[in-house]
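> forwarded from #structure-qc
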């Protein structure tokens, strides 16, 4: 359901009924008219969108956080499929797809798409992009997952592509949502990290990775024309910056506000607020492979799960918007969790017992690394966790780095990585257990886990040929990850935002803030 002002105050309700049940704005000032009966606030000629993370580049073949690069890239480029506000897989460059057998797919693609320099986007261009990503020597990180199951992409004719897989993939269309198509000649002669030429609704005008980017309309875009001719993304990498920008009226839409700060805008004449459940789980990701680490022992990992009082954090910091993860990284309504697995209860006595059994009765010291200012309530939450763990003899040291350095540290050697990362990651579309499981595999680029059984089960689940087989293997994987405690399971990501009453916008719980998805309130 689209966000629109109405004649009365009430909560902003979002998306399909299943998602709306949890993604519900409980701190909304949603009156279409300003308090006292005034007119709906107007937005200017430039759409002003706030990002909570420093931009790491705009290379379409390197992915990107929804809170920074990913939102910009998705406004400039197109992919074969896209994820709708209700998190279903929808057509984009591809208009239809079919699986002829478990290892062969056909995609019908549009022939009217045009890059922003006026050149047509062809089937040959799509094939070239996939060839690059399937080359193990290519530096586009989006290719690594593809190479696990995709053998080749070939042109059948100008409107048909053939996909040949090495392993079945029931959800292949969903997995392709972020495989963006670059113009081959441009890609080979320019630096895609800082320059862009796509076929999406907007083109890149300026890029300052620390401060933001400006976009303008792609005059050759084949789809519906966005309502804003110009867009300014501004990096506001701290909570204080985000709140200050809103209070000064300098932004039209910002996500990732701490729930406690939303109260400042509850009765605003200018803004509505959104508080609900996002589709990605928040965990403390564990480094199990550092030399000599006590975290290699599952009893220590289990103990720390028992030592974490998630309910108190949720009640005190997150305004009760979410509930604890059910001992797994998939949860309703975005995926179907295993009902046989439940959350670790808060049990400090059990935690102390397990730590003593593991030889740490006298305590231990560990470090968590945070990405400065980018996750909702992360500073206060990790301080609360540190206080809780101190009660069982564990000292948790908290360190912070700017987002690019924090991300890079996860790509490095195990012995140089932190013991924990407070992190939110997971799938992008409904039912995307592949996306939610990926970061918890031993072979993920950001992982420091030693999880061979989980790896094997998730591989089999990803290669299943029936939904029933897939569900059974998913449940086995979930049970294994819970029992081995391959994460400190916290809670679903709170989905928060502040949006101008002059905007028409359908909130998207995966936090991708695409400029083309934001319009003006029509009189």
């Amino acid at each position: 359901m689209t966000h629109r002002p109405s004649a009365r105050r009430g909560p902003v309700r979002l998306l399909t009924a299943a998602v709306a049940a949890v993604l519900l704005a409980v701190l909304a000032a949603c009156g279409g008219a300003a308090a006292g009966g005034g007119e709906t606030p107007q937005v200017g000629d430039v759409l002003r969108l706030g990002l909570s993370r420093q931009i790491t580049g705009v290379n379409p073949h390197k992915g990107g956080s929804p809170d920074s690069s990913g939102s910009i890239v998705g406004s400039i480029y197109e992919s074969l499929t896209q994820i709708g506000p209700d998190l279903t897989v929808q057509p984009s460059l591809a208009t239809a797809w079919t699986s002829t057998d478990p290892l062969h797919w056909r995609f019908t693609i549009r022939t009217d798409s045009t890059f922003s320099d006026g050149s047509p986007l062809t089937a040959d261009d799509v094939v070239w992009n996939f060839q690059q990503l399937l080359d193990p020597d290519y530096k586009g990180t989006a290719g690594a997952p593809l190479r696990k199951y995709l053998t080749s992409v070939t042109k059948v004719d100008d409107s048909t592509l053939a996909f040949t897989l090495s392993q079945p993939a029931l959800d292949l269309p969903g997995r392709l949502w972020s495989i963006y198509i670059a113009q081959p000649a441009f890609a080979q002669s320019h630096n895609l990290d800082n320059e862009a030429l796509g076929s999406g609704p907007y083109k890149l005008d300026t890029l300052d990775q620390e401060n933001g980017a400006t976009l303008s309309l792609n005059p050759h875009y084949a789809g519906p024309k966005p309502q804003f001719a110009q867009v300014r993304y501004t990096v506001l990498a701290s909570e204080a910056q985000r709140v200050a920008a809103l209070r000064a009226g300098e932004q039209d839409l910002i996500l990732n506000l701490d729930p406690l700060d939303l109260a400042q805008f509850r009765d605003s004449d200018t803004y509505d607020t959104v508080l609900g459940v996002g589709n990605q789980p928040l965990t403390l990701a564990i480094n199990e492979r550092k030399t000599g680490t006590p975290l290699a022992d599952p009893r220590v990992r289990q103990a720390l799960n028992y030592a974490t009082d998630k309910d108190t954090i949720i009640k005190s910091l997150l305004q009760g918007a979410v509930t604890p993860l059910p001992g797994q990284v998939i949860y309703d309504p975005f995926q179907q969790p295993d009902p046989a697995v439940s959350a670790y209860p808060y049990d400090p006595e059990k935690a102390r017992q397990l730590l003593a059994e593991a030889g740490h009765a006298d305590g231990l010291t560990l470090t968590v690394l945070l990405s400065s200012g980018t996750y909702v309530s992360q500073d206060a939450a990790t301080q609360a966790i540190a206080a809780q763990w101190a009660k069982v003899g564990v000292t948790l040291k908290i360190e912070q780095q700017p987002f690019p350095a924090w991300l890079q540290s996860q790509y490095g050697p195990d012995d140089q990585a932190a013991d924990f990362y407070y992190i939110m990651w997971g799938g992008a579309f409904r039912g995307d257990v592949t996306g939610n499981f990926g970061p918890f595999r031993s072979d993920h680029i950001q992982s420091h886990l030693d999880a061979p059984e989980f790896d094997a089960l998730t591989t089999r689940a990803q290669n299943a040929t029936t939904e029933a087989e897939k569900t059974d293997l998913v449940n086995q994987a979930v049970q294994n990850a819970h029992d081995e405690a391959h994460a400190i399971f916290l809670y679903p990501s709170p989905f928060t935002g502040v949006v101008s009453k002059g905007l028409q916008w359908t909130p998207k719980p995966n936090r991708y803030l695409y400029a083309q998805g934001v319009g003006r309130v029509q009189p």
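QC bot note: The chain has 16 helices and 18 strands. The longest helix spans residues 467-484.
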